[in-house]
Structure prediction request, 116 residues.
Amino acid sequence: MRPRRSRPTLAEQETVIRWDREDPLVHIWTASPTEMRRLAQKGLASTRETNSGGRVTGRWYVIPRREFRWGLKRQGARLSPEHARALQAGRRPAAGTGESHTSRDAVRTNAPDPES
Prediction:
């Protein structure tokens, strides 16, 4: 009888991305088969891998920092009216609130908004 292979839990299928401002490289380690396939489809070859019981359990990748992009997806295609006004006025909108930092600070201090 063949020993049963245990599959990693979803929590164990993690990916770690590390970079700093000094090193020109981004270091990626993943135990996620999905991320391994995604990186292979992008033409990246792993630099090292770990094995357990004859199967791959993790892979390391190194890519130039200038080729790495990180970001968050937008939550919807439309901006709130407050967010759009803040952008048009050249202010930096507060994250996730649709307000500018200035108007948010005015509400917090109960002071009138200097830009209104």
Remarks:
- The two ends are 77 Å apart (CA to CA).
